[in-house]
TrEMBL record, chains A, B:
Subunit structure: Homodimer, forms a heterotetramer with a Cas1 homodimer.
Entry function: CRISPR (clustered regularly interspaced short palindromic repeat), is an adaptive immune system that provides protection against mobile genetic elements (viruses, transposable elements and conjugative plasmids). CRISPR clusters contain sequences complementary to antecedent mobile elements and target invading nucleic acids. CRISPR clusters are transcribed and processed into CRISPR RNA (crRNA). Functions as a ssRNA-specific endoribonuclease. Involved in the integration of spacer DNA into the CRISPR cassette.
Enzyme Commission identifier(s): 3.1.-.-
Protein name stated in the entry: CRISPR-associated endoribonuclease Cas2
Amino acid sequence: MVYIVVVYDMQADRTRLMLNFLRKYLTHVQNSVFEGEVTEGDLETIQNKTRETLKSDESAIIYRMSSEKYVDRMVVGEDPTDDARFL
Amino acid sequence: MVYIVVVYDMQADRTRLMLNFLRKYLTHVQNSVFEGEVTEGDLETIQNKTRETLKSDESAIIYRMSSEKYVDRMVVGEDPTDDARFL
């Protein structure tokens, strides 16, 4: 397993395309940011699907850590993941 | 030194406030994403200044790694940092 953070920058009216597939694998932590633990296979799928989805003026960065323990997460302002606790 | 990635979500007409101060410490890698190596002191300044800058419906996440070596960075689509190489 690896821990990844995906940030993307795309046209506002097209973000739903990324939301719909990324939420199958990851947690939605901010408007255009997802994170979570996935298999190497999932990561490959995410990379391929991201490549297919983005148009030429859009981009995504996938940060990959071998484990969540190598990263600390500090939230300033409202933490959107708080909502998830009450679902 | 620590390696950080800052992602923020704020009103489009106010993003300049974050851009202006974050670019003093970090590299601008995507629309609302900065990253780079900073001192613990810089990180504290960045946290405080981010807290002061954001309004209640806005947020930022700061991912902190003890070193850049713990994170791999994969770019899908255009890499905005490519521009920097030619400056």
